[in-house]
Fold:
Amino acid sequence: MYPRSMAESDCVMVMGSNMAECHPVAFRWPMQAKANGATLIHVDPRFTRTSAMADIYAPLRAGSDIAFLGGIINHVIHDERWRTDPFFQTWLLHYTNAATIISGDYRDAEESDGVFSGLMEYKAGVPEWPYNGFVGQYDGRSWQYAGTQAADQGRVAGTAQSGEVPGVKSGAAGASTGAGAPRRGGPPYDALVASLVKPAPQRDATLRDPRCVFQIVTRHFSRYTPEMVERVTGCPRDTFLKVARTLLANSGPDRTCSFAYAVAWTQHTNGPQIIGCAALLQLLLGNFGRPGAGIMALRGHASIQGSTDVPTLYHSIHGYMPAPTALKPHDTLDDYLREETVATGYWAHTPKFMVSYLKSMWGDAATRENQFGYDWHPKILGDHSHLPMFVAMADGRVKGMLCVGQNPATSLNARLERAAMRKLEWLVVKDNWLHESATFWKNAPEVRSGEVKPEDIKTEIFFFPSAQVAETEGTFTNTQRMLQWHYKAAEAPGACRTDVWFTYQLGKRLQKLYAQSQAPRDAGFKNLVFDYEHEDDYERKRGEPSAVKLLKEVNGYYSADPARHVPGFADLKDDGSTSCASWIYSGVFPAADKNRAASKQPDPPGVPGAQLEWGWAWPANRRILYNRASADLQGRPWSERKKWVWWDEAQKKWVGYDSPDFAATKPPSAPAQPGATGLDALSGGDPFILKSDGRGWLFVPTGLVDGPLPTHYEPAESPVQNPVYRQQSSPVLKYWKRADNVLAEVGDSRYPYIITTYRLTEHYLAGAMSRWNPWLTELQPELFIEMSPELALEKGIRNLDWVSIATPRARIRAKALVTRRLRPFTVAGKVIHHVGMPWHWGYEGLATGAIVNELSSLVGDPNVTIHEGKAFVCNVEKAEKA
Structure:
């Protein structure tokens, strides 16, 4: 969804976020909904400013989100109105995979006390990279649809990051067929895609088959009763039921609910499963593709969305295509497309997206004969994300690092990360200020204490001063997938340069360095398209590249006529005739004189619409994804009040207030074509066009590595045994067991309290952009720890006392903030105290303080390796004055 649509919600549930303080601009839309009569719900361990604005505040223990959401799912499934209402039952049967039959080999976590079928010992993919971190691994083949393999993105049982597939052998790490090796296949790839078509999934329209998704989901969540929810989360039973009833009462043909979350959902060892649990609930309630519905992922940075679309992520390339990997059969381009293309649904066009991407990388040098330069593309060896990279760095396996817009000296298990940086040969830091990662060699706590001597640190550090955002031009992609053009407002002082200047100049110099090389491995660098000289003489002399030309490269153009822009991704080809860096962005710059990111035309006041001329949202300027679901099976709006996109019989096409997210002229009555590929394989009533079966997935047969259904696991560190299952925590989480990354045992009396970290309105991330600002540091001058009056009384701590906070990794100090914003929870019959700490401070800037992330560990989710910073354990004691 997009934030503005939240104003049309009848109920907004904020969970996993303190939206009012951390996303105050976007919070105006829930407040607009509230002003229109909507109910605002906040679920959080702390009573925050978001809670203060909510109609219902539901407290819960950090790390117990799935138990809470699972209880709502159980409540909905057993509600009489939901079971008999034609709207809900139509949605369930026709717009979700509820009727699909799952393999007879599948065993649910309910049958195995918290473990799904297919669990096995983890086996590392390649010896060159032993840092993937899994404590276990699933073979997910038993999770598939009966009689078929419903593969999206080719990930049947592989990891979303490392790319490993159990039982599948591939070439050696970095292996390539080489420039002179024989080629197979090639464009057009229609036959390859057609060969991937699977039999249609088996279905039971009565929803009574015990192996159909609906029955599996019903059994899976049956133990999440209101009493169990209270026992696991600490949320009072009556409060939980009030939330569940409010969500259900505000869902239906003429009412919609929306969710908003942020990193308090993601930063867990089961973060993607928490989000998936909310998606499952919203599918049951019919809250997708409709105004005021959906789930809003709140990004904490101006272009976090953009940095995953046009990725700074190692495991995906542009447009969420998987990065080629040495751990799967990706030896040739044909191999890659055979492994990663989904034959039914819109991902059937992957060959067009991939070939156009390769053309954008290597231009005229990318030909049919050399697989469009595929051999030049690097292959990953496993999980190269932040956590394993720093473990490898600590082992001396990483020689150098470019640190741009990041501050690892204050990051996760910060002492370990600073120790890792001391092993580097060189470090480049490019930022606005000389922050902790630029000065760790002289000002880190272990250096000031004498534990580490500066002269023993061999790392050579280079600092590049950075220009600020207002000192450059280009696009932002915000949290609603909208690209907006921003203009240069001021010149950067002195030697400060933009990030794109740094990247462009580095690339040009490296191309010059390799220009005379005859090594096959350097051919890709020599042939790389890297000519984006600025149109303006002044900027060109300074070496600044053209943001306009870069946006054109992202949008795409025709290879034979580069001046002619591709109008949209529907025009991309797999024969090399089109070049497009990022297929999902194609259409933002459809003509040389039409930069749609720069559009600033609002809809007329009082006229229904999606503000389609204000900026541009991918894909194809659709503001609400899967908006075919806003109409019923006949293509009519579910209600006049929630009208959005509908079938116009007179015009024989889909019309509405938004760009229809569907085949424009495909009537709602159109049947699926057996054996067909792409959208032809889906019917006119299948709204989820990026899914292989066109339906929203209640049960996820592929794409996640930790189970097809959300399941409550305790965090990696917890003061209690799992009250739901015998399996304590995720059996496939990632943990790097080291002497400098020790975890507390379950219920360890030395670390009895739950700690969660969070942000403040006045500071930004690790503080590198805010602690040098005198106004902001005056508003929030020093680090503190929030605790309840009950815990403070128990520990003899008074407000503003110094407190010592300890985990198995570190010990730090902070001032006490004794407040009723936090409360003790009764969990499994045991009183559990909860503390919270913001993490904005460090040893540089106008306001300094202890580094809260020193307390955290390197432990992560198995899908995306995000750390667990929202729920771990600690001890607190009154400390002596500084």
In short: Residues 150-160, 165-184 have pLDDT under 50 and may be disordered. Residues 499-513 form the longest helix (15 residues). The radius of gyration is 27 Å.
